[in-house]
Amino acid sequence: MKTIKFQLEPLTCPSCIKKIETKLGKMDGVEEAKVMFNSSKVKATFNEQEVKAEEMKEVIEKLGYPVLN
């Protein structure tokens, strides 16, 4: 398992957290996805054999939340 953090543009609503966590959590290989509202960071624990960091980044951006790193 590997853990990665994504820095997002500032989040403006708490419902953003649920949307991102739910979508990432449904991806094969993602064990846990946690969004920190105050810092606008996403922390994800995942299996590199099943999912790539770039795929998670694309999912977050398709939801409308630009990833800064």
UniProtKB/TrEMBL annotation:
InterPro entries per record: Heavy-metal-associated_CS, HMA_dom, HMA_dom_sf
Record key words, sorted: Metal-binding
Domain named HMA: residues: 2-68
Name of the protein in question: Heavy metal-binding protein
Organism of this sequence: Oceanobacillus caeni
